[in-house]
Structure formats: structure tokens, C-alpha cells
Amino acid sequence: MVKRDLFIDKYHLKYFRNNLIELDKSQSTIDLYTYNIIQFIEWFKDLEGTEFEINKISTIDIRDYCSFLQNAKNEKVGTINLKIASLKSYFACLLRSTLINNNPTLAIKKLKTTIPTEVKSFDDKTYRAIRKEVYRSQNNLHISIKYISVSTPRPGNTSSTNLLNIPSLH
Predict the structure, then answer these.
(1) Average pLDDT, stretch 160-165?
(2) The CATH number of the domain where 16 resides is what?
(3) What is the DSSP string of the chain?
(4) pLDDT at residue 118 is higher than 70
(5) Which of 4, 92, 109, 127 has CA 20 to 30 A from 159's CA?
(6) Does the residue 71 lie in any domain?
(7) Would 107 be classed as within a structural domain?
(8) What confidence tens digit (pLDDT) does each residue in 27-58 have?
């Protein structure tokens, strides 16, 4: 018998799985949620070096697990959020059935996905049009525009441009 099979009865996972069936969850969702709960239990047991006791799990344990997944395991936000959803469902089910006294996942929120911002700039055609207009006005700013456009930081470039160092702006 696989070690994980022992978890099914010991940690009320059979009850949890039956609850998910009643909620009309798909078999793949039931299996994934069960697997995620078992992973959490294994992580907890490895970390604490003690037996997993459902009533002693705190919000801090859940936060530590999320931090572990994010930093040590380098899991993606979507994966972590799925594991959070699994834990929330598990602890809510156990609380409803009075198998536990409190739900440690109540204060846990999904992680937000950070979308990298695009560098906003104008295209070459617009740049040339601006540069020509400034040049035609016989203003020395066309030199400054050229200098700024060449030395403007690009994504991944940490250099900075100091406008006071541009000769035509003095």
C-alpha cells in the first residue's frame, strides 16, 4: 500500500472526496484536490517533523506553504491559486461537518498575477516626424531629442539619462 493511500482514511479525505462528488465536481478535479491536500500534509509533516493534526493547522501554516510553493518550488501563480482553492475547499468541508473547530484558510486570498507593463514609446515614423518638425523650426532641441532617444533606457537596461548633461539644454 502506498503511503498516500493511508492518508485517505486518516485525514478525512474519503469524506472530502464524497463531498466533492455531491457538489458534482469532475473526477479529475476530485483527484487533483485530493493530491493537493496530500502534498500539503506531506509538506507539513516534513517541515514540522511531527504528525499532522488537522485542528492544529493555522493561517500561518497556510501562508508558509504558499511562500514555500512560490519561493522554494518556484510554482506559478495559477498553480498556487489552485492549491489554495483545494485547501479552502478541504477545510470548509471539514468545518461544516464539525471535524475541525476553525478554518485556517478564511483569511487566505488568491495570489494576484502581476502583468509586466509594456514600455510605452512611439514608433520610428512618429519619431522621425517629431524630429523633422523640431529641426525645421530651427531649434537646437533636435539634438536633444536625438540624444534622449538614443540613451533612453530599454527593458533590461538600467542606465539612466540625466537631462542636465545634454549640451543643448543648458
Answers:
(1) 47
(2) 1.10.150.130
(3) --HHHHHHHHTTHHHHHHHHHHTT--HHHHHHHHHHHHHHHHHHHHHHSS---GGG--HHHHHHHHHIIIIIS---HHHHHHHHHHHHHHHHHHHHTTSSS--TTTT--PPPPPPPPPPP---HHHHHHHHHHHHHTT-THHHHHHHHHHHSPPTT------GGG-GGG-
(4) no
(5) 127
(6) yes
(7) no
(8) 999 999 999 999 999 999 998 888 889 998 99
